[in-house]
Amino acid sequence: MAFLGLSGDTLTFLGGVAEGTSKTLSRQIAAQQDAIKEASSTMIRSRLAGRKKYDENIEDITKEIKPLLAQFNINDVASLMKMPVNQRNLVVKQLATVDGKDARSTFFKTLNQFKNTTALTESELINSLVPAYKESKMNFKGLVPRTFADVLFDQDPSNQLESRVKLNVGADRNNVNRTDLSSYNNRLNVEGKIKIFSKDASDMVGYTKNLQATIFAFMGGTKVQNMAGGFRDEELKQGDLLVAGNLARLYAPLYNRRVRELQVVKEMSLKEAESFAKSEFASSLANKFSSDDYTGNNVKIRAMTGQILKTNMDVGNTQEYKFLKGDARVKTSINLQLLGVEKMIYDRMKENTLIPDTFYNAMKSRVRKILSVAGYNEEQIIVVQKEFAKRVALLRTD
Predict the structure, then answer these.
(1) What is the tens place of the pLDDT at every residue in 336-369?
(2) Which of 9, 57, 99, 100 could be cross-linked to 322 through a Cys-Cys bond (beta carbons 3.0 to 4.6 Å apart)?
(3) Are 153 and 24 found together in one domain?
(4) CB within 8 A of 207, min separation 6: which ones?
């Protein structure tokens, strides 16, 4: 009986065709699998390389900003990261002496800019600092040759390629949102620029001595002058010299501040700023005192000394010492003790009598003892002692 109505000769013919077709199909399938293997390997390497590069960028930026986030508020870190590296390193170095993130923020113009706005997060900052990454769409069409069986049964071998690629690289990554950081400007306010980009006056010791001599001259100097019916003896001259020295030491930080300010505001060199500031202070003193009224000058100078001391003391009482460690209670206790030592020095200076080195050494020892008892090491003690010296306006190196 003929199979499905086909004769034996017909079946023999179709069998021959099927055998040839099978060999051709096998060759096409082998070529197709080679194409799938080659294309998928290229696509997988490309996509994984892109992802790896993005991940490395994220890792590099993270390492770079982590130390900054420990020292600055996140908005300020955004500003710092927009600066050239050399400038950023200088800003970070100079502001390292300022204690606290919020205190460092006062040197940035961005301080109040972002109030009542959505806070910038660490991940948003990191993603916005790296080159944009977007997972490219892969077009698998036409990359794999179709066998005649695919054509006959309308199959798409690209599906095999797509499955193979996704199996090795996983699902597509979501696009990363990038925050516009253009508003996070890298400008510093005037105080920040003075703090970071200006230098201290280079002639503080010499200027203080010259200022003392100038003030002393307004008080009569080394001359023996008739004062209120009597003679100004050697003891009085030494007393006036001491008063002049106290005022000069208190004035010197104002001179130094003006020198630093001029370097930024007037864009002067250090030498130009020193010369200009000296001229300003000399003119100011000349306007305050009379060249021949030594008695009146003496009264004014002693009053000025007392006023500056009082102002310094008032400021000192409203500001906590930097670099203190421990919880709030411990810090408050140490701060009050240090303020007490400050007051002892101010009270002694107000007497306008010679203060021997033994007194200053005793005060330094007192500060050291306060800090030692609180568990400070030598390095920490030196840091606080330097701040102590600045606050009492004593230009001493001992």
Answers:
(1) 888 888 878 877 776 666 667 788 888 889 999 9
(2) 99
(3) yes
(4) 201, 252, 255, 274, 278
